[in-house]
Amino acid sequence: MTDAVVAASPGRRISASALPALGVALIWAFLAIFLVYPLLRVFYDAFSDDTGRLTLQNFVAFAADGFYQRSLWNSLVLGFGTVAATSVLGFAIALLLVRCDFPGRNLFGYLTLIPIVSPPLVGVLGFTFIMGKAGTVNVLLEDWFGLAQPINFVYGLHGVLLVETFHLFPMITLNVVDALGRIDPSLEEAAASVGARGWRRLSTITLPLTTPGYVAGALLVFIWTFSDFATPLVLGVHDLLASQAYLNIVQFVDRRLFRMGLVISALMVALAIVFLVAARRYVAIKDYSSLSYSRVPRRRLRPLAAAGALTFLSGVMLLSFVPYLGVALASVGKGWSMTPFPLHYTSLFFERVIVETPKYIVNSFLYSALAVVLCIVIGVPIAWILARTRLPGRDMLDGVNTLILAVPGTAIGIAYIRAFHVELPWLMTPLTSLWIILPIVLAVRRLPYTVRGSYASLLVVHRSMEEAAASVGARGLRSFGDVTLPLIWRGVLVGSLFSFVTSLQEASAVLFLSLGGWETIPVGIFSFYIAGSANEAAALGVILIAVAVASVLAINRIAGTRMGGMFG
Amino acid sequence: MKIALREVTKRFASTTAVDRVSLDIGDGELFTLLGPSGCGKTTLLRLLAGFVAVDDGEIRFGNRRVDGLPPHARNIGMVFQNYALWPHMTVRGNVTYGLRLRKLSAAEIGRRMAAGLARVNLTGLEDRYPGQLSGGQQQRVALARALVLNPDILLLDEPLSNLDAKIRVQVRGEIRALQRDLAITTIYVTHDQEEALSLSDRVAVMREGRVQQVATPKTLYERPANRFVADFVGTNNFIPGVVKEHADDYALVETPLGRICARRGDRAAGAACVLAVRPENVTLNGGGENRVEGRIRLAAYLGSTLRYDVETAAGLVLKVDVGDSWQHELLPAGHGVHVTFPASATLVLAED
Fold first, then answer.
1. Is residue B130 less than 8 Å (CB to CB) from chain A?
2. How does DSSP assign A19-57, residue by residue?
3. Nearest CA to CA, how far is B143 from chain A (Å)?
4. What residues of chain A score a pLDDT lower than 50?
């Protein structure tokens, strides 16, 4: 009976087996066109002159230029400095949260997550309102102590370091928390039984076991800091590679400068790839995770130690939340200059950015929603291929997915400008003149979150569950829909939500590609602030924060607090 | 080193994991804690190691009272169920870690590591990482790591449970030989009664935090103290009844299967009891003081033996082992038989 049906419809059998192949081909085509090609194009341009001949002269010019030398040095100092600072903060907080018990521990567990999903551009704005030369802190110091000259907290390289550290330390914390949770308690008990105690045990057993997770976090912190141009520019720091890349590209006049922008972009990508490969090599040979069913019990801190922990955490949180206070005040404050706090309050700025020019919000949600749809359509099948198949090219797919996490948005934005500034056939217009390029670039940038969320939950659904469904008669898509999907939708949703929030906040790539009328909220914040309208920028910032907080709460409700896997 | 436990108690929230346990363990003895999961045997081991603190009672190693001391001050060596080898250190790193903490000279560390690895036949694997070793090798590294510090007492927490059946028997023998050579007092935790019987000097059977019986393997098997021990160690048939009278070394017990003559126990005449008789002591159509009619319900061929389930008139099912299965023709289900068993192999136990 079954045989007869199959034999009678040979056409269906062929299409049923061709469909997956077509899907895989489409996924690869998308990645090839919108990720691999633009990056290769940047490298080609960096290694060629105006006539298209291959040459190293661009790099020679770069290396010979004293200004670029200083920028490279500054960028490296900033990158490694931020990694060091976030590591100290991140480890301390992770150890407190995982290994100790004190009042308010859960609350701090939640608070630690907020800075990471909060928009970076908003963070730096808020710092300038509160800690700037005419900010609240300086005004109060002048009023109380008669300070003659304002203290420069934020303008300069040290300011960038400060802002990046308090924005990025949760990346370390999350990864270390995750890694600490995977350490089997018996490993530490074994150390205790041979006499290792306290700091000795921590430094020789516990901390080394967290390195795989830690390295992944540190890598992201470095790449982020190294390629961020918005924060330094707001703080008036121009002699960094990322700042130079942005300024060189957007001026569009001097061809030599433009090419220097491409060279810097190629350098960023190359550095990111080198670090990524090194980190993956390192992590691959050191998989310490064990299926541990028990956890190291939390140590109840004595009152004095608990007070110390609370003071430390409150201090860190206070500094992380300074920007939000600043932005919130600036968004409703009128006449805020040379006073610690605004003199009058108004809803004028919100009306301006919501009612008068709703395009920022409309564009942001439209582009991000479209991007997430793309992420799901492409990302869930990728996750399935990674988790369930041994298709040729599977490892490369995994590599590409991780590569996206490492490639800076700045570089992607520059690559798109270079690669898609050619007229498309039939349309007679380049892709860079069509707004659809924004959802596409957002989808490419945020694809890994959807893939990782889906992949993690697919791993939990044991293959035998699908096989059990098949054994009672559910075929292919049927068993996927009835068994797999109900078990993984949570992971897909968390991943997609994360893709969505981070799309809303994407500044770097979008700043390069956005044209008049396409402005998203981050673009609005940047251009308002640069144009001197700090209050409107702050109002948009508050909206972005509200969306971020709502999303974190939603993600926590759905997934619990273990988000560490998203960043590894 | 002798170990003495007096009224040791450990409570977790609402449960009492270890309940007033008193034990005396002799110098150089291999002493096993046996019981089902959740019986408190692992908690008791961790109390000895010092990973958890006693709520009541005292623990002495030799003349020294150790409850209250941290693990490193007790001079114990411990092998964990999952070995707990540090994955970021080589075999050398794992084995010498404790020696390095004690600030011994490099020469001394090298000498003791070499001796330790030679003892467990791992010489040559110093630079491997735990992930590059087989389960049996990891097990031996864990053993070497515990022994290089010359501990007074060796604690083993289900050390064989992660190994394949064949290797398990082999490593079991190696552990026993090593322990004898070193004459080190050893506490061994397991839920596998065959393992416990085969390698222990003495065994303590535990249930719900309490010690049920402490005895040599032979006594434990042949003279279990109560129904729980009789049931947990090996296989037994249980027949409920009431003691009628005693005569010399024997007791007459009224049961659903009729009057049964058993070895005299400590149950008084008139008391309710349960009779225990092992399948290997029951014969089909043979001789013996006790004789019961029944019908074959099921036959299971186990290779070295053949086990019948025989349903008696009263509905009670008795397990019967036929040892010489090679000579025996398999009886079909429904076949009528009579089963016999001697009074000397029938024990009178208290009903739990």
1. no
2. HHHHHHHHHHHHHIIIIIHHHHHHHHHHTB-TT--B-SH
3. 12
4. 1-14, 291, 561-568
